[in-house]
Amino acid sequence: METKQEGYVRSHTDHNITTIEFFHPQSNSLPSHLLDTLAQEIHYAGSHDGKIILLKSAGDGAFCAGASFDELLQIKNEAEGFKFFMGFANVINAMRLCKKLIIGRIHGKCVGGGVGLAAAVDYAIAVKGAEIKLSELAVGIGPFVVGPAIERKIGTSAFSQLAIDATLWRNEDWAKKKGLFAEVHQSVYDMDDSIDRLTSTLAHSSDTAMENMKTIFWRNTDDWENLLRERAKISGQLVLSDFTRNAINSFKKKK
User: Fold this and answer.
1) What is the value of pTM for the model shown?
2) For residues 40, 41, 42 and 47, what is the CA-based torsion angle, rounded to 10 degrees?
């Protein structure tokens, strides 16, 4: 567990539901230490107490702002870049390989890697205002690591639209229509009520049946260990470019 200033990942199990919550003061962005802990917590939850996993973030702002820009600017070589982007690869693969269904609570905006997390859960429940954007191309990188998870969920056409127009927000209705969100609710209260209903039902369902269902849902992804590693190498190279560094610095000055 990390301090609040550095962010944290916390988990607890109650009534067969394991809740994993992450937080970072910069719009729930994900530096490498949180990515590593998040992957570990998902892996642990998949083989210990509880029948179902709820993934959520803290606060009432963004669900997840994706990669930590502060950490991206500190990357000095391809090895460091590869290591950072493997953090996202490890989280996605942990979610993919987890034998338990993962429900996502999407309470706010998703950017970049945050869209990847929303796509990698097995069932995402969102609220009005949970807009999405793949901003990577705008800073010279591209959504290479999270791309397979997003494309799997919403299809090549919708994924390419997000990836190409990297400055345009798509609203929650667009995300639901394309299949990223299973549900969109008018209020946080309604969203949480639906989450409680579904997780409680699943907590009393057959874990063997749910495990077999998840295997079917994630079929044809056996090559992702290697695929996401290759994608992390691409991102690790691109993040070193002057274009990317200038774009990130320009973005930070506007905030």
Assistant:
1) 0.95
2) 90
Rounded Cα distance, 165 and 195, in Å = 32
Structure tokens at 59: 């606060």
If one counts every other C-beta atom within 10 angstroms of the C-beta of residue 243, the result is 12
What is 8-203's CATH superfamily? 2-enoyl-CoA Hydratase; Chain A, domain 1 (3.90.226.10)
Side chain identity, residue 54: L
User: What secondary structure, in 3-state letters, does the chain show?
Assistant: CCCCCCCEEEEEEECCEEEEEEECCCCCCECHHHHHHHHHHHHHHCCCCCCEEEEEECCCCCCECCECHHHHHHCCCHHHHHHHHHHHHHHHHHHHHCCCCEEEEECCCEECHHHHHHHHCCEEEEECCCCEECCHHHHCCCCCCCHHHHHHHHCHHHHHHHHHCCCCCECHHHHHHHCCCCEEECCHHHHHHHHHHHHHHHHCCCHHHHHHHHHHHCCCCCCHHHHHHHHHHHHHHHCCCHHHHHHHHHHHHHC
pLDDT, tens digit (0-9, with 9 covering 90-100), for 188-238: 999 999 999 999 999 999 999 999 999 999 999 999 999 999 999 999 999
How many Cβ atoms sit within 10 Å of the Cβ of residue 128? 15
